[in-house]
Amino acid sequence: GDHPVDRLMRHADDEFDVLTGDAMNGHRSPADVYRAQRGRHPPPGFDAWLAFAKKHNALIHERFFDRVYDDLRPFWGVKPAKIRGFAAGFGDALVVRNGTVTIRSDGVDRPWLGPWAEMVQEVAEHLPDLEMAMNVLDESRVIVPWETIAGAVEKEIAGRKSPEQLFESLASYRTEYDLTWPDEMSRGVLSSSAQFVTAGKYWDLAKPGCHPASLARNDPFPNYSGAYPPPTQFLTHLFNDYVSNWTRAKDPCSQPHLRSRHGTFIEPLSISTTTDLVPIFGGSKLSMNNDILLPAAMYYHDVSPGHVYSSSGTEPPWAKKSTKMIWRGVASGGRNRHDTWPHFHRHGFVSMVNATAAHLVETGSSTPAQTFRQLSPTAHLRIQPLREGRLGQWLPAFSDVAFTGLECFPQEPGFGCSYTDPYFALATPLPFAEMLTAKYLPDLDGNSYSARYLEFLRSGSLPIKATLYNEWHDGRLVAWKHFVPMDNTFIDIYSIMEYFIGYGEKPPHDRAARKIATEGKEWAAKVLRKEDMVLYTFRLLLEYARLCDDGREELAYVGDQ
C-alpha cells in the first residue's frame, strides 16, 4: 500500500517544483518578476543587488524573498520619520554611514552584533546611510495586535499598482535615497518612543497577535491548570500521524495546547515585548511576532573555526553512518522550575524517547504525569511498539538522547538539578562531529531557534525538525524534501522512526531517509551559503531603506527601462 510518508514526499517534490519553477526558466528579467509579484518597482540599488547575486552564482528566485515582504509590509502603515526615530533611539543598533558599519550598544557584551555587522559590511558600500535596531535577546520583541497589523497591511496593498500603471509616468520616480538620521543631540529624547513590557504570562502577551477567529483567541479550555487536555482536536496539520502542513505545525495561534508544552510560553528567560509597531531586526520569531527577520548571527558566525556547531566537513557517507537517533543538549527553553518543568519542550522530548522512562510508564511503576505527557495509545497513534507496550524495549535499539546539563531555576551548583535529577541521567557532551555520524538528528528549540539546524542540513544526516520559530530561510526549504518535520508535541517521533528504521514485520525505509538527507544537503549547499545570507540581508536593507525615506512612494529602480 501507499504509505502516508510516500505521499508526503511526492507532494513535497511537487511543491519544490513550483517553488523553483520561475527561477529556472528565466523568461522575464528579475526586475519584471519583482514588479509583477510586488506591485511596485524594485528599490534603488536593485541593479547592485543583482550584480552581487550574479557574482556569487546565487540562485535567485523571487519567492525566496517573500519573508522580507511579509515582515516589512505593515511598516507602509508607519510614517518614515517614526521608523527612523525609533531606530536612532534604540540601545543596540547597527549604523551604516558612508558605506561603513559600526555597532552602537549599551556597553554590555553583545556577541551577536559582531557577526551581523560583518554581514552588513559585505554590501554596505551599496547602501544609503541607515540605522537598524537589533534584538540581542533570544526572545522576540514585537507583538502588535492582529487588528492593527491588518489595518497597516491594507495601506501597503492600496499602494500596489499593475505593471501598466507602474510604467505610466516613469519620470515622476526618484532613483536616489534621501535619508537623514537624527544627530547625537536629539537621540536622548528618542529612546523612549516605545513601551516594553517585561513581566506577565508570555501566552497572554502573544495571543492578541493571532487572528480573531483563531483557536488561541477562542480557547475551549481558558482556565486550565496543569497539563493541557490532549491536543488531538488541534492537530489538524497532521496527516495519518505525520506533519503535512509545516506552516500550521509551527503556529501557536492554531494550537492553544502549546502554551503548556513549550518553555517560551511558560516562562521565557527574558520578556521585553512591545505592542507598538516598531522595526526591530532579529534572527528568529514566532508566527505572531512582528520582528523583522535576518539570518541569525550564529549561522553567519558558524563558518568560523572552533565554533561549537561547525562541522569539519568530513562526515561519513550515509551508508557508514549509524542507524541511531542522537541528540545532546542542555535543559534550556526558559526558566524551568520544580512545578513547571514537565511542561518544557526539551524535557518532554528527552523523556518521550528515553527507554527507562518509557518502560516505567508501560509497567505502571511511574506517574506518567511527571515524565511522559501522553503515552496512551490513542486512536491516531497506530504505532505498533506503543500498542504492544514494547516502547521501552524498542527505543534502546536506536535512541541515544540525553541532557548534558539540567538548567535549574533558581540555579543550583553543578550540572544537576534536585527536582529533575530523579528523571534524567546526564550524559557527557558529544563532540559535534560525533553527532553527525548518526543518520537521524532531531532538532529542537532552545530558548528560541536552534543554531545547529544549518549544520544538520549540511551534514548528510536526516534532520527531524520541531520548532515554533520562523527564520529567514523558511521559504527556501520544503518539508519532506529537505528535512522531516516533527510536531511540537513530538507525538509523531515514534511513527517517524518506525517508518524509517522499521519494526517487527514493518520494513525500514532507509532509501527514503537517504533521499531527504541528500537532497537537503545538496540544496543547502546551493541556497543557504554565507553569500545567500548576505544577499537576503542586502535585499532586506534596500527595502528597509526605502521605507525609511519620506518620499518612499516615489522611490524606485527604473534603470532597466
What do you see in this structure?
This is Glycosyl transferase CAP10 domain-containing protein. Residues 256-554 form the Glycosyl transferase CAP10 domain. InterPro entries: CAP10, O-Glucosyltr/Glycosyltrsf_90. The chain has 561 residues and is an alpha/beta fold. The protein folds into 2 domains: 31-196 and 271-300 and 530-554, no CATH class; 304-527, Rossmann fold (3-Layer(aba) Sandwich), CATH 3.40.50. Helices cover 34% and strands 9% of the residues. It has helices at 4-25, 30-38, 46-55, 66-72, 80-89, 113-121, 146-158, 163-166, 184-190, 202-206, 246-249, 263-266, 297-302, 345-352, 355-362, 384-387, 391-394, 432-435, 453-458, 493-501, 510-527, 530-548; strands at 93-97, 100-104, 130-134, 238-239, 242-243, 280-282, 292-293, 322-330, 399-405, 438-443, 462-465, 484-485. The strands form 3 sheets. The chain has a 5-stranded mixed β-sheet, with helices on both faces. Strands 9-8-10-11-12 form a 5-stranded parallel β-sheet. Strands 4-5 form a two-stranded antiparallel ribbon. A hairpin with a 2-residue loop joins strand 4 and strand 5 (242-243). The longest helix has 22 residues, at 4-25. It starts with a helix and ends in a 13-residue tail after the last helix.
- Provide a count of the helices: 22
Largest sheet: 5 strands, mixed
Distance between the termini: 56 Å
Specify the CATH architecture of the largest domain: 3-Layer(aba) Sandwich
β-strand percent reads 5-15%
Catalogue the unreliable spans: none
Keywords:
561 residues, 5-stranded mixed beta sheet, CAP10, alpha/beta, 2 domains, Glycosyl transferase CAP10 domain-containing protein, Rossmann fold, 34% helix, 5-stranded parallel beta sheet, O-Glucosyltr/Glycosyltrsf_90
